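job 3f2a | input accepted
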Amino acid sequence: MRSLFVVFVITVVAGIGYRVLSALQAARRLDARLAIEIRDKLSFLFAEYGFHIVPNEDGLPNSMDAAKATIEGGNVRLRFLTGRGDLTVDVSPRYAPTDLARTFLGGDGD
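job 3f2a | predicted structure (110 res):
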């Protein structure tokens, strides 16, 4: 009976680990798609102002269908957040990325 319990626990833990890993991979794919979309739709920022995509450093996990992407150029950092049809942009100085000004750009007609 004890060995059956151990097998059950290992199976549950492995299943949870797989789900967590799958969720992290899905979040990275969403983040990458958002970064590509930003690069394509705001190409003037990259071409004329020298913006570039930088890693997300907030350490916060994505939830549901959320995605985030960060770009920098000059002394400005822009962090784009999407989820549930909304788009939010955090603006901060490059030297102080936690001093954010948040701009909500709306969503699905709400």
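job 3f2a | The chain has a mean pLDDT of 76.
job 3f2a | closed
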